[in-house]
Design a protein that fits this description.
By secondary structure, this protein is an alpha/beta fold. It has four helices and twelve strands; from the N terminus they run ααβαββββββββαβββ. The protein has one domain: Rossmann fold. Keywords: ATP-binding, Ligase, Magnesium, Metal-binding, Nucleotide-binding. Its EC number is 6.3.3.2. It catalyses: (6S)-5-formyl-5,6,7,8-tetrahydrofolate + ATP = (6R)-5,10-methenyltetrahydrofolate + ADP + phosphate.
Length: about 190
């Protein structure tokens, strides 16, 4: 399927999920993450879920990271440039939703891309080759292209892999892992 077809299909599938489904699946995903060999790093970038889009609730993962005393980074999107600025999440970080309902830090301690070691990535769909489909604005592709090549890229999905995304292009950044409620896909 094409990215456009997959966006339409998976937005509809997510829309059909209940709050209980989202909560149960998000908890299962966080438990699956514990199986990955990623916990020796220091700087972890994570997205804050857009509840209105029925994204994976990352609160469970945030709790794991905090419990392991990791540096947690969250982003603020610039819709004029298509870029993202990353801030250290602290007890003093003020979070506000932007006009797209994306929870973002108001300001804080900025961290450069080259320090980021692990990135948890929102997506709508992914395939068995590690390609992903997001909302189509390219924020994560630009961000990931500017990270170190060794940065570990982990997609989080409520659903299992598609066989193939047919319109992948060179600027698309693939995943190293994708985690679903049922298991872990490895693409490295």
């Amino acid at each position: 399927m094409t990215k456009t077809e997959l966006r339409k299909t998976y937005k509809a599938l997510r829309n059909d999920l209940s709050e209980n489904d989202i909560d149960d699946f998000s908890l299962a995903i966080s438990n699956q993450l514990l199986k990955l060999p990623i916990w020796e790093y220091s700087f972890y970038h994570i997205f804050l879920a857009i509840a209105e889009q029925k994204e994976v609730n990352t609160d469970y993962i945030l709790n794991i990271l905090a419990g392991k005393d990791k540096n947690i980074l969250i982003s603020k999107s610039d819709f004029k440039t298509g870029g993202m600025t990353h801030f250290l999440l602290t007890d003093n970080t003020v979070i506000k939703k932007n006009k797209y309902n994306i929870p973002e830090p108001v300001d804080g301690i900025e961290i450069t891309n080259n320090k980021i070691e692990v990135v948890f990535i929102p997506l709508l769909a992914f395939d068995k080759q590690g390609n992903r489909v997001g909302y189509g604005k390219g924020f994560y592709d630009r961000f990931l292209a500017d990270c170190n090549p060794e940065t570990i890229k982990i997609g989080l999905s409520f659903f299992e892999a598609e066989t193939e995304i047919t319109d992948v292009f060179d600027g698309d950044i693939g995943l190293d892992y994708c985690v679903t409620p049922k298991g872990v896909y490895r693409f490295m």
